[in-house]
Amino acid sequence: METNHLLIKLVLLASCLIHQRVCSPCNFPAIFNFGDSNSDTGGLSAAFGQAPYPNGQTFFHSPSGRFADGRLIIDFIAEELGLPYLNAFLDSIGSNFSHGANFATAGSTIRPPNSTISQGGSSPISLDVQLVQFSDFITRSQLIRNQGGVFKKLLPKKEYFSQALYTFDIGQNDLTSGLKLNMTTDQIKAYIPDVLDQFSNAIRKVYSKGGRRFWIHNTAPLGCLPYVLDRFPVPASQIDNHGCAIPRNEIARYYNSELKRRVIGLRKELSDAAFTYVDIYSIKLTLITHPKKLGFRYPLVACCGHGGKYNYNKLIKCGAKVMVEGKEIVLAKSCNDVSFRVSWDGIHFTETANSWIFQKINGGAFSDPPIPLKFACAR
């Protein structure tokens, strides 16, 4: 690990010398986030109803719009940069957007969905809609901020849009949407180029609005997520030694390799912008495949769920309740050892896991270029 840190410092120093600049931590006065439930801090809850308790139990001690027991990776990023937690753009109650906004919603995809959320489809707030919201936010935030008073305190300064960190954590639902349609691995791989075409165009649109500092996560090892294992089972011969579905991880790896290639291309095309590609896949795979060594338990079993091998039931999700003789009964409760668990609800990670993942992200060892978060403005 010390060798990795030394290498990162040498890479950073070399970059400084080559580009003849002073390398000091960046000033990120704001964060603008685009994504799905991995980084949703209240968007879907504002639109379709609050994620129920025990979501939020560990840190916020009540539902907070997050599909987790506590903080998400985006929360730890904000903490590290000395910024407030991001409020969801869609949340009109008590929100402060002076240091950024979160356009992510649970279930969001890069490509516009073909089915409604009530039909079991994806969120209607796909990446193209998030971009419309962002564009509108830029214009209206400045018009309203100029009215002064409380608005001046609750909305970002104009210059923040060019200085902000733009974070992207989206794409997982585009892959699982193919699984829902019973597509083969090859069929899903075949539409990935179109997904990434649309993602690349989204980056270009943010760039055209002044964004210059991009922080892009790849996708998780799908074959190791309890909900994928439960809902889209594969033959035992396609399960690896850690209990993960080999073909599902193959899809994720292919997506990630193509995403990285696109980011490299965007880095050349938009040469005055800084791009950091973050290998979330490898970090999460390490955590899932070496839990005991890292102080965790049961990585393929949801902490908050209901029944079955993976403690996951798509019809009885975390916090689900029923009425029995006039009394409300919680069917899907939290486990008692959440601080040692990897999976919160079969889809998302626990706060403890998110914290561990963030520590790996923060140092830069899993990033391209391999620089720490606070230096992500370096080109």
Automatic annotation (TrEMBL):
Tagged with keyword DNA repair: no
InterPro entries in UniProt: GDSL (IPR001087), SGNH_hydro_sf (IPR036514), SGNH_plant_lipase-like (IPR035669)
Spans traversing the lipid bilayer: none
Signal peptide positions (record): 1-23
Keyword presence, ATP-binding: no
Pfam short name (any one): Lipase_GDSL
Domain of life: Eukaryota
GO terms of molecular function: lipase activity
UniProt keyword list: Glycoprotein, Hydrolase, Signal
Matches recorded under PANTHER family: GDSL-LIKE LIPASE_ACYLHYDROLASE, ZINC FINGER FYVE DOMAIN CONTAINING PROTEIN
Homology family: Belongs to the 'GDSL' lipolytic enzyme family.
Protein name: GDSL-motif lipase/hydrolase family protein
